[in-house]
Amino acid sequence: MNARTRPSSVTAVLVLLILITLYQLGAGGLALLGGFAAQAAPSMPTATEVPAWAIFVAAAVALVYGAASLALTVMVARGRPAARPAALGVNAVYGVGILALAFTPVAGLPELVAAAFAFTVIALLYSGGARAYFAGSASPAAPGTLA
What we know:
The chain is mainly alpha-helical. The protein contains 5 helices and no strands. The longest helix is centred in the N-terminal third of the chain and has 33 residues.
């Protein structure tokens, strides 16, 4: 059996997508619970004075991006040719969207760090090795190179 060798840049993308998925689904779920708690006890003092609507928007964004990242993780792990354009699109939309929301109560430092991860995924997918891998013509990379 002659399996394609996965370049290190694609392996890095896979690891980042797994981390993004776990973080976004966990944070989104907790934010959703926090939003419900804020609505249930509106007079209860909180550590931050973030409006409930902002908590729900942040939770929705995190859950949608987490679900999309889960699908992308599976696609990248299987080496699907559609994984590269899908991952580029999803991560670009998320990264730009978070930058647009940076000065609202919806996005804070954790979201900006997640956007940096999204832009890192984009950069790695533009490497020559990733392009060749998803085009179906990947050859083994030289040891010690980021293909």
